[in-house]
Amino acid sequence: MKRGFDSLIVEISPSPSISDFKQLYIESTNLSTATTTTSITARRKKSASLLQNHRHPSTLIPSQDAQQLHEDISTIINQIINTNMGNIYENTGLKFVLFLGVQGKEYIDIITERFNSLTANSSSSQSHILFISYNLQQEDTVPDFPISTNNQCSSLVNHFKIKDPLGGGVYPLDYLYVIDKNFLIRCSIPIIINSNHRMINKNVNRHYSGLSSHLNFGIELEQLPGFVEEYITYFNQG
């Protein structure tokens, strides 16, 4: 019997691009002003609670357990900041070192927008947010946010051993390191750029052992400003 395949039309939709994911992220974060206001209020209450009770952030590594950065790595971080600050930088605050991979780099404008209010705050004026990635240009961000050169990116990625196996051998995994004024690593945590990646990664690891599990925990993109503010609040207590 001959089957009527000629009348069957199969329509295949193209896979979503990074720009599609980025647009979805922008739309999802702008859906509800009320939700955003509630989130900001909750973050401020949490920071106030930390200030009152002198509680440390849950992801904080105690100083006695924190790893001391090698001198050459500390020098690179200072160079990145000094290039932006015109050699007037004083090492008195926290350094939030954001490693951005192929996908994370596409969100740099959103991240800087979220952080602008923090850098404008006098309480965070001695803290710095650094962007580390490959082929970054100053126009990708704003003057208040130092960026790495390709050589600096390579040195830092190799030191922290966070090279993305799918990043062409040059891009890092999306990661955040919090470094104090004594160049102790007080936190290291993956950044979840797309929350769908966490779910996919868990499903894959359920069936295939030995695969990277770095996305099984971490902080999501929209949580970054609150995360940074929590650390700044705690360390400002002295």
Overview in brief:
It contains 7 helices and 6 strands.
Description:
It is a single chain. This protein has a single domain (34-235), classed as Glutaredoxin. Strand 2 (95-99), helix 4 and strand 3 (128-132) form a beta-alpha-beta unit. The protein has seven helices and six strands. It has helices at residues 18-29, 33-53, 71-85, 108-120, 150-160, 195-207, 224-235, and strands at 67-68, 95-99, 128-132, 175-179, 184-192, 219-220. The protein is 41% helix and 12% strand. The termini are far apart. The longest helix has 21 residues, at 33-53. The protein has 238 residues and is α/β, with parallel strands linked by helices. Strands 1, 2, 3, 4, 5 and 6 form a six-stranded mixed sheet that branches. The model is unreliable at 1-12, 31-40 and 197-212 (pLDDT under 50). Helix 2 runs parallel beside helix 7 (224-235).
Give me the secondary-structure topology.
Layout: H1 18-29, H2 33-53, E1 67-68, H3 71-85, E2 95-99, H4 108-120, E3 128-132, H5 150-160, E4 175-179, E5 184-192, H6 195-207, E6 219-220, H7 224-235
- State the name of the first-level CATH class: Alpha Beta
Tell me roughly what share of residues is in helical segments: 40-55%
CATH architecture: 3-Layer(aba) Sandwich
Could you spell the SSE succession in H and E letters?
HHEHEHEHEEHEH
Residues in β-strands, percent: 5-15%
As residue ranges, the low-confidence spans are 1-12, 31-40, 197-212
Structural shape:
globular
